[in-house]
Amino acid sequence: MSLTEIVFLVLAVVAVGSALLSMTSGQLVHAALWLVVTLGAVAGCFVLMTAEFVAWVQVLVYVGSVVVLVIFALMLTRQPSGARSAEVTGNRWIAALVGLAAAVGLGATMVVGFRGEQIEGRRIGTAGSIGDALFNDWVLPFEILSGVLLAALVGAIVLSRSGSDR
Amino acid sequence: MPLLYPLVLAAALFGIGVYGVLARRNAVMMLLGVELMLNAVNLNLVAFDAWFADALHSGQVLTLFTITIAAAEIGLGLAIVLALFRALRTVDVDEVGR
Questions:
Q1: Which residues of chain B lie closer than 8 angstroms to A10, CB-CB?
Q2: Does residue A76 register a pLDDT over 90?
Q3: Model-level pTM greater than 0.80?
Q4: Is B83 helix (H, G, I), strand (E, B) or coil?
Q5: Topology of A1-77 in CATH?
Q6: In chain A, positions 109-128, which contact chain B (CB-CB < 8 Å)?
């Protein structure tokens, strides 16, 4: 087993463990911070699959801004902590069953379909090569996506404006 | 590295995300579960890109697009949660449905 595989398995254990802690944690802020650990471990997995640029985007966008946004929302809804803040529904066992079924079903499908395939250690994900692909082959989707992002941001501002002037 | 490692990890993260969305009562926590599922998808995209050694880098470019969509989604979702909190003084999805 190569060093890459060992590091990947360690990161996988960290990701799954912190994701479980995040989804079962009693306190919302703890859940958000455990999610940071999960996303960081996934970024490490991206690096090991030689997708460095995606890994940095993951760290910048997810860990840097999405989680901060979530913590802001927790503060603004004035329930950052407390015993009641992160209750689970009464059907948590059914939810656990459905989640387990989804994971096992997907995992079994993947094992049956792709057993024995190997990822070769070619360098494929540097910023230069991704930039080339993005601005040569994917320009139109990229521009459409910037429109979508702008529309979403304007929509978010309209929705979260205070209600007095509507 | 075997292709199965990232694929099985993604399946596990997706299952945990499904549990988070279904079991949590707080709307913000449900959004976190959705983010977890989107990350599992990203992991799959990057893994297949690395396995296939795609000349167009489809998997990684689509991952960047997914991350952007996820950022837009969480922005809109949190705005809706804030509007909900302002209207009903709660973000508990069970009480909102009542």
A1: none
A2: no
A3: yes
A4: helix
A5: Four Helix Bundle (Hemerythrin (Met), subunit A) (1.20.120)
A6: 110-111, 114-122, 124-125
